[in-house]
Amino acid sequence: MHIAVAGNIGSGKTTLTRLLSKHFGWEPHFEDVDTNPYLHSFYEDMQRWSFNLQIYFLNSRFRQIIEIRKSGKTVIQDRTIYEDAYIFAPNLHSMNLMTTRDFENYISLFELMSSFIQPPDLLVYLRASVPTLVKQIQRRGREYEEAIRLDYLKKLNERYETWISKYNLGKLLIFEVDSFDIEENPSDLAMIIEKVNAELHGLF
Prior knowledge:
204 residues; Rossmann fold
């Protein structure tokens, strides 16, 4: 089974992925952040490196999905391939940080890849306001993320809401990150675990 956690930068995807994998005994697949050769360069010069970064993520996540389905295990994945294609790449294009030529090339590649994959059995979406995102980005203190602009986060949030409002590929759970803290309050995590459990029982 494939469970995926979606949400904006700083919404808490990695933390929730880690905690749910520990509770349920699922295998976690984290986003390729530490070894990504483009991230630092991208935040220094988005226009120059946007296409390279998006292609790297697309390739990385496509490989992940193939591995997840081959493994036969229950896996929880930090961020989906759909977020790259429906949120990050179009946002970079609309902000004139990716050329139309590169964007069309990217979308063509995504459409081909998506024809070979199955969507997650359950998608967990973490909805967070920009102030919450900023607070959590600052809390984890990744140096290259210090340059992220507020308007960039706001535009991403708008695209996330549009995508989620039309999402129909499988089961969906939405959690309001502004109203809980899963690291500090065990009861908040217990609430999420309970709802995930209830949603998954319908899959068997």
